Amino acid sequence: MGDNAMPSPGATAVIVPAAGRGERLGPGAPKALRTLAGQPILLHAVRNLATARGLDLIVVAVPEESCEEARALLQGIDIPITIVSGGETRQDSVARALLALPSEVDVVLVHDAARPLVPSEVVDRVVGAVRAGSRAVIPTLGVVDTVKEVDGDGVVRATLDRARLQAVQTPQGFARDVLQRAHAASDGGDATDDAGMVERMGVIVQTVPGHEEAFKITRPLDLVLAEAILARRRAAGGVG
């Protein structure tokens, strides 16, 4: 479906900020347009999101010069998709995508394009928790490594209790008005965690179980792991 398809009242949209350059992957195209198993990471991410039951619209923010390429790339996916020009920072891109949402949307998810393999059940859990009354929801996983607090000189200052620590994933889900107020109250920085912006307003953030396959592609080694997961999914007849 194209940019003009309108959702019904009470709709859920997911914003995918995909304008980052991804320097840690090395020089080249924006991270979301790098290839994974022969296809752009962005295509994998949007295709996986489209399998979730509770989504009505996907808004993708890409570099201005990549808008037409992204529009052509995502044609044929069976969910309305809007492409917008992203900003200089992730926060700018999310804010621009928020402005592009139709009034019918009242629940908004934000999902990193660099987490292209998020299973649909994680998306459904986030949407379900917001629809059940939570104002902000994040998927998390328990931390398995020992975590230490280290100062600027490399000296260990504390060993943190990992039983109380959670690694945060996306998509993060919000009542639309909460996310809009968080961005309106922002100082214009580069927040990489929308839930953190909401926390600063005093809004309670609820957690739901995440998934090991919802990891973020940051380094070349992450691409190797992602390709192995895709190969396993394709062998099992799943989304790839």
Q: Can you describe this structure?
A:
With 240 residues, the chain is α/β, with parallel strands linked by helices. The protein has one domain (11-138, 170-235): Alpha-Beta Complex (Spore Coat Polysaccharide Biosynthesis Protein SpsA, Chain A), CATH 3.90.550.10. The chain has seven helices and twelve strands. It has helices spanning 41-49, 67-73, 90-99, 120-131, 176-184, 194-199, 220-235; strands at residues 11-17, 35-36, 39-40, 57-62, 81-85, 105-110, 136-142, 147-150, 156-160, 166-168, 172-175, 206-209. The strands form three sheets. Strands 1, 4, 5, 6, 7, 10, 11 and 12 form an eight-stranded mixed beta sheet that branches. The chain is globular and about 50 Å long.
Provide a concise account of the structure shown.
The protein has 240 residues and is α/β, with parallel strands linked by helices. The chain is built from seven helices and twelve strands.
Return Rg in Å. 18 Å
Helix content: 25-40%
**Unreliable segments of 5+ consecutive residues:** none
Topology as H/E string? EEEHEHEHEHEEEEEHHEH
How far do the termini sit from each other?
A: 21 Å
Shape: globular
Mean pLDDT: 92
CATH class: Alpha Beta
How is the quaternary structure best described? single chain
% residues in beta strands: 15-25%
Q: Briefly note the CATH topology name.
A: Spore Coat Polysaccharide Biosynthesis Protein SpsA, Chain A
Query: What is the CATH homologous superfamily assignment?
Result: Spore Coat Polysaccharide Biosynthesis Protein SpsA, Chain A
Classify the secondary structure makeup into a structural class. Answer: alpha/beta
Looking at the overall shape, the CATH architecture is Alpha-Beta Complex
Q: What's the helix count?
A: 7
- How many distinct domains? 1
Number of strands: 12
